[in-house]
Amino acid sequence: MYTFTNKLRNFSIILMVVGFLGLVYGFLSSPDTVAEAQAMVADAHHGEGHGAEHGAAPHDTHNDHQSPSAHGEEHGEDHHGEHLLHQLQNKPWAALYVAAFFFMMIALGTLAFYAINRAAQAGWSPALFRVMEGITAYLLPGALIVFVILALSGMHFNHLFIWMDPEVVAHDKLIQGKVGFLNVPFFLARALFYIAGWATYRYFSRKFSLAQDQATDVSNHKKNFRISAAFLVFYIVTESMMSWDWVMSIDPHWFSTLFGWYVFASMFVSGITTIALIAIYLKSKGYLEKVNDSHIHDLGKFMFGISIFWTYLWFSQFMLIWYSNIPEEVTYFITRIEDYNLPFFGMLVMNFIFPLLILMNSDYKRLNYFIVMAGIVILLGHYIDVFNMIMPSAVGDQWFIGVPEIGGFLFFFGLFLLVVFKEISKAPLHAAGDPYMGESERFHY
Predict the structure, then answer these.
(1) What is the pTM of this model?
(2) Deepest of 132, 141, 144, 269, by most Cβ within 10 A of its Cβ?
(3) Over 80: is that where the pLDDT of 43 sits?
(4) For the chain, what is the mean pLDDT?
(5) What is the number of structural domains in the chain?
(6) Residue 335 lies inside a defined structural domain of this protein
């Protein structure tokens, strides 16, 4: 059984403390008035920061529909100043939300991969089940943190979701047409429904998995098979709806029928990559003796394959929208290309070109060094992917990867490590009772 060392626990706590301080700094340094917001932007334009790239007047194409031209120049200036204030106030909230969603997404992607292996009764993967179960332990606390942020948004503590603002809705016919779906009570009720379903499956699957170790028959294994098959149906529906609610509705004027699959590919490859990294770490500490190079090789193949699948979905979404050139749709990508040029195209290098070059060679996928190197780049790339999904609509061109953004990442990274490794230490890493464990132990090719 793995022992959760004080060294790793202390490291996780230090990350959380440093990250928390970074988030606190972000909230404390955000402006309280329009004058403060304008002064902050003016200072940034006179420095060497990101703001100098955008000229004297910050803009946000996502909210062009809110610019009132019929109420006089003075009202327009007031509205622009208020909009700038909301953008800068959103920065620490968006940093918090991006990091919270990203690490929750890793746990949810791992849960999907775990359920697929259970439902398929795969013979190669039982040696890794305890690692997967440890990672999915973060799902409930991580999802509840996301829910709290969503609830605070509904209580108008921030302006992440513009459709939650009655004044915006009153002057926006497009959002008015979506009020039946995009309203705070129904939005939060759906979120609780998603989380309850995911957490319920995770609880019973883990329970049956541990019970199978002590059982004299395979009844718990069969129960796990049945609930995993049922969960996958629930998952594919709720994951898509979750992506519409929690991410796509931040920009309620834009939609994509591929978006649910796109977010799925991102969370799936992130979850598989995390399984590989934790398995390699545990092996380096003398655990997981039943996991061999063939297991790591298979995880590397999934990392490579799903990275290609993610790229296919990204290009399909981008190409169709760009080619059709419908103003309501193409604005989404114009904003990101103009204002987020480096993270937008850098993400493609990290999520596609780098994994393609590193993991295409079959021999490299058996080398832990290459898997770790590719895995770190993939995870950071998909963090930037989530950043690109959320930030343009939340903060416009006022983005910067600074103290609150790094602080949010470190805080949730520390919390993730703390929860996952504590859970891994609670049960034997060898799922001895699984009927396919013998096949997994002999897995070589």
Answers:
(1) 0.90
(2) 269
(3) no
(4) 89
(5) 1
(6) yes
